[in-house]
Write a structure and sequence with these properties.
Elements: E1 2-5, E2 8-12, E3 18-26, E4 28-34, E5 37-43, E6 47-51, E7 57-61, E8 64-71, H1 85-91, E9 96-97, H2 99-115, H3 119-137, H4 150-162, H5 170-176, H6 181-192, H7 196-213, H8 218-224, H9 230-241, H10 245-251
Antiparallel strand pairs: 1-8, 2-7, 3-6, 3-8, 4-5, 4-7, 6-9
Length: 260
């Protein structure tokens, strides 16, 4: 989420989530006292707060515009690669400047505006954020994954084709490949050159292009490839194909090629 927050003084409530906040505008005096220690600093744009699960205390903050991400680590499919609680607590005792985390948070916020909530994209983004947090805390880097062989990739490709109209998660793709979820994104990119989200998006746009060539209305083509919002579909289609869906349909003769 991204929102403007008024000046605040009061309790820091414990939750089940790892909370990460990036100041994007405003900010100023920031105070927090929790089990992780005491922070008195200037929270300026580009600086991050990290609040682990189950951490409570008291805090005070100037008005700020913030991009925030909350992660339920117990439900995260890459949970085996997450930082341990003690490492997270050590990071909660200070503000951080990390360009990698900031860039991913801004990309997730931008993607949400364009696509809505896409499971694969958000899982990949959260994996990047957690990996970087693990690096900041001194956790060991994840092991280099084994390669995905052709048989496992084919099963993933078949699943993608069957789920172009619906939601699909990294965990589901990893399961059909009989591969550990925490390392699947890296292994998939190593094998194909694309992240799971990028591959799924490409296949959806290619399928939509064929439907449009056969005269399908833009709204129906969007629904067929998993987009309930036609404007978000049009933006994604133009980024992939270089023209809008209507322009694509106008430039190609209807019914020239079979859909399947």
């Amino acid at each position: 989420m991204q929102s403007d927050f008024a000046a605040y003084e009061g309790l820091v409530y414990a939750t089940n989530y790892l909370r990460i906040g990036l100041a994007t505008a405003g900010g100023g005096a920031y105070f927090q006292r929790t089990d992780a220690g005491r922070i008195e600093a200037e929270w300026r744009p580009g600086l991050l707060t990290i609040v682990p699960p189950n951490l409570s205390g008291e805090g005070r903050c100037a008005p700020v515009n913030m991009v925030g991400l909350a992660v339920d680590l117990h439900r995260w499919p890459g949970a085996q690669a997450r930082p341990c609680p003690d490492q997270l607590v050590s990071l909660a005792g200070m503000l951080h400047r990390d360009e990698a985390i900031a860039s991913v948070l801004l990309a997730l916020r931008h993607a949400a505006e364009l696509h809505g909530c896409s499971t694969l994209f958000f899982e990949h983004g959260v994996e990047l954020v957690l990996g970087r947090i693990a690096a900041l805390s001194g956790a060991p880097a994840p092991r280099r994954p084994h390669k995905l062989d052709r048989a496992r990739l084919d099963r993933v490709f078949e699943l993608v084709e069957a789920r172009l109209a619906g939601d699909l998660s990294v965990a589901q793709m990893a399961a059909v490949a009989n591969y550990e979820a925490s390392g699947f994104t890296r292994a998939f990119k190593q094998a194909t050159g694309s992240t799971p989200f990028a591959y799924l998006t490409a296949r959806r746009m290619e399928r939509a292009a064929l439907l449009l060539e056969h005269g399908e209305p833009v709204t129906r083509a969007a629904l067929t490839v998993g987009y309930a919002n036609a404007s978000k579909f049009a933006a994604a289609f133009q980024r992939r194909m270089g023209v809008t869906p209507r322009q694509w349909r106008a430039l190609r003769p209807i019914g020239k090629f079979p859909i399947d």
